[in-house]
């Protein structure tokens, strides 16, 4: 009788430990306590870059330069990716400022990481959708009527809204998870872990460059990137974001909040 009575309770407890959507959503709400960090400041940075780009284009076109020439020259500006550096910091802060607090009210590390990842997805989706839409608006208005090329630059504006959305989404996810996963490494191993990480990344990059250079493979490498195209390149970037997310989860399971 005792075994029969307690079995459902034990099963329910194990199921509860496996997945708790309410706790995952609670972490999303925790991150959204100050929404401007995730949804406001990145757009302020983009807006400032846009204003500067329009002013520069207006000055150049006022001097008599054709709009088409101005737009072509501005297509190589990196202003459209200006929020990426800030989003790395957002990834760092998302973990550093909330991890200890979340564990304090009983959230598991797994649910905390899932909630954080879900918040990152929300940020990446809204930014990617906004950027891809602004590319279309910029193209339709001839560069905001002054020949500016802020969003319709680099790889954007070449293969349509969906590709622009996908590439922007992949980039946002990468920088957010890089910031978050690096923070978990610092929490787990402190400065020793950061130094090992830094030197390991540098050694891998230098090793790759040395092997490709000494083997004379640079033409093949560049040809391969051309073959896979923009979507292929950003699929690799999204894959790196997934690797960063998994690494961060594995490390945070043993991280010690202080």
UniProtKB/TrEMBL annotation:
- The organism's superkingdom is given as Bacteria
Native source organism of the sequence: Agromyces sp. G08B096
Q: Which UniProt keywords apply?
A: Membrane, Transmembrane, Transmembrane helix
Q: Identify this protein by name.
A: ABC transporter permease
Report the coiled-coil segments. Answer: none
Keyword Cytoplasm on entry: no
Transmembrane ranges, per UniProt, are 37-65, 85-105, 112-137, 165-187, 194-218, 224-252
């Amino acid at each position: 009788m005792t075994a029969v009575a307690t079995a459902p309770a034990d099963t329910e407890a194990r199921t509860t430990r496996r997945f708790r959507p309410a706790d995952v959503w609670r972490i999303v709400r925790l991150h959204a306590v100050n929404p401007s960090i995730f949804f406001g400041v990145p757009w302020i940075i983009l807006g400032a870059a846009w204003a500067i780009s329009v002013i520069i284009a207006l000055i150049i076109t006022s001097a008599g330069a054709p709009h088409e020439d101005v737009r072509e020259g501005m297509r190589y500006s990196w202003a459209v990716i200006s929020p990426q550096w800030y989003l790395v910091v957002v990834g760092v802060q998302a973990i550093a400022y909330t991890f200890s607090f979340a564990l304090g009210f009983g959230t598991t590390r797994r649910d905390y990481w899932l909630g954080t990842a879900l918040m990152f997805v929300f940020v990446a989706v809204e930014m990617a959708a906004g950027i891809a839409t602004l590319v279309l608006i910029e193209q339709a208005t001839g560069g905001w009527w002054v020949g500016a090329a802020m969003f319709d630059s680099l790889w954007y504006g070449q293969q349509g809204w969906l590709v622009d959305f996908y590439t922007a989404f992949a980039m946002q996810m990468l920088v957010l998870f890089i910031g978050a996963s690096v923070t978990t490494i610092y929490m787990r191993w402190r400065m020793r872990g950061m130094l090992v990480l830094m030197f390991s990344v540098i050694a891998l990059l230098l090793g790759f460059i040395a092997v490709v250079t000494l083997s004379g493979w640079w033409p093949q490498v560049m040809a391969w990137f051309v073959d896979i195209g923009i979507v292929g390149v950003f699929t690799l970037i999204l894959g790196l974001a997934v690797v960063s997310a998994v690494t961060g989860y594995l490390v945070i399971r043993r991280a010690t909040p202080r």
